[in-house]
Amino acid sequence: MDAVLPLTSADLDRAEQILVPSLLRHYRDLGRLLVVCPPRDLVAISTRLQHPRIRVLDEATLVPEFAACDRLGLPKVSGWFRQQLVKLAIAPHLQSDFVLTLDADVIALSDFADADCIQHGRAIRHRHSKDSNPQWLDWAARVLGLPELDYQPGVTPAILSRSALLELGDYISRRPHPTSARFRVGVWLGRLSPRWHVDTWRGRLIASLPWTEYSLYDTFLAGTGRFSSVHSEPTDTLLLANSVWEAPDFADWRPLPRDQQGRKILFSVVQSRIVADVAAVLARLSPSRPAARLGG
């Protein structure tokens, strides 16, 4: 299975020293790691993340609308939303039926293969209480014109279906135009020059901000009756657990391959905004196994 990692130079140390070595060490069926970065960071990231399984892509090849939107202010797309749209837009570049989505502060903890997270053509997908961030569910329902979810979808890392991502893009492209004046100007300019073209599903999503990628994805699958055809809820494997979401949690955090019920934990997150010190995170990881080396 391919994986996608939106990345900027600000998080390069963390990706180079923690995420990428842990992923190469533990995930034996990794296809390609597609690292997507802004044009300004291409040289730095390509130089430091060198491995036969890694491909570094310019985000402009996935979302060319970013350039037009930056010029038009359609609206200004923050880094958080850029990363989310990259994950939704990766589908045409995949060589696998599913994609593992990553962020720089993700850590692989257990040895695993595709069979641990994809069975009978369905990937594991977590559902959580809707009490956290309920506005995300409202945003997705508004953008898609579909019923609001009664649960909160799992966040990064996640496994998404390539076919479902393509269908989601097609669905959005057939939705009515966003009503913002800037989007209408962009559509008009797109008739004059391809570099201004924003009347795509990606441009429509940008003009419809705010939203979150996983709420859009799950709202589409649930609303169109497709969820159970590509996903199932896990029983003995957790894609994400034992994470650090608040600063005090790091004091007692230790990387664990299983939870108290004996379920395998594939990944943890130690949020970079909570623990910015890469060396502090590395110190908590087991020194007993050598990290996979980058280069060549």
Would you write up a description of this structure?
This protein is of the alpha/beta class. The chain has a single domain (2-236), classed as Alpha-Beta Complex (Spore Coat Polysaccharide Biosynthesis Protein SpsA, Chain A), CATH 3.90.550. The protein is 38% helix and 16% strand. It contains 13 helices and 13 strands. It has helices at 12-26, 42-48, 59-62, 65-72, 79-89, 114-117, 134-144, 162-173, 181-190, 201-207, 213-223, 227-230, 278-284; strands spanning 2-6, 33-37, 54-58, 98-101, 106-108, 118-119, 122-124, 127-128, 152-153, 158-161, 231-232, 237-240, 264-269. The strands form four sheets. A five-stranded mixed β-sheet has the order 3-2-1-4-10. A three-stranded mixed β-sheet has the order 5-13-12. The longest helix is centred in the first third of the chain and has 15 residues, at 12-26. The mean pLDDT is 89.
